[in-house]
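Thread: "does anyone have the structure for this chain?"

Original post by V.I.:
We have the sequence but no experimental structure in hand. Need at least a predicted one for the grant figures.
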Amino acid sequence: MKHDVTVVSCLLAMTLICGSPCAEAKSAEIIHKCDEFAAHPDDSGKWAAGVSEDDLAPGPAILFCNKALKEYPETARFEFQLGRALLKKGEIDGAIAALTGAAEDNYAPAYAYLAEIYRFGLLGEEDVDTAETYYDLAIAG
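Reply from O.Q.:
Generated one for you, C-alpha cells below.
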C-alpha cells in the first residue's frame, strides 16, 4: 500500500491547495483527539498538525474519531479522519461509509481517498471510471 500513500498525498496536496470546506466543530477552541490522531497533514481543513499514513495509529484514531462524531455529528472532517483510520486498519467497508459521509458534505479530501479505493481495487477489482469520477470531484471540491 506504499504506492497508494504517495498517490493520495500528491492528489490531496493538489486538492487542498485549491481549498477545501472546513466543516467546523461547535467551538473554534476545540481541537479534538480525533484531530491529533487522524488529521491529514495536507488537509487545509485540519485543526491539528496532521499525521502521515505511516504514523497513523488506527486503534486510538478510530476510538477518538467515533467519539468526536458522537459529539459533533455534522463535522465532515471527523468523518474523513475516521475514514483514514479505518482504511489504515483495513476496514474498507467502514472506511467507505465514513468517507462517503464526508464526501456528501463536499469534503474534498474524502473524494480523493474514495478515488484511491476504487483506483487500486481495494474492493476486489479496480474501477477506474469510478475513481476518475471521484478524482474530478476532489479537484473541483
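V.I.: this helps a lot. The two ends are 25 Å apart (CA to CA).
O.Q.: and The chain is about 60% helix and 0% strand.
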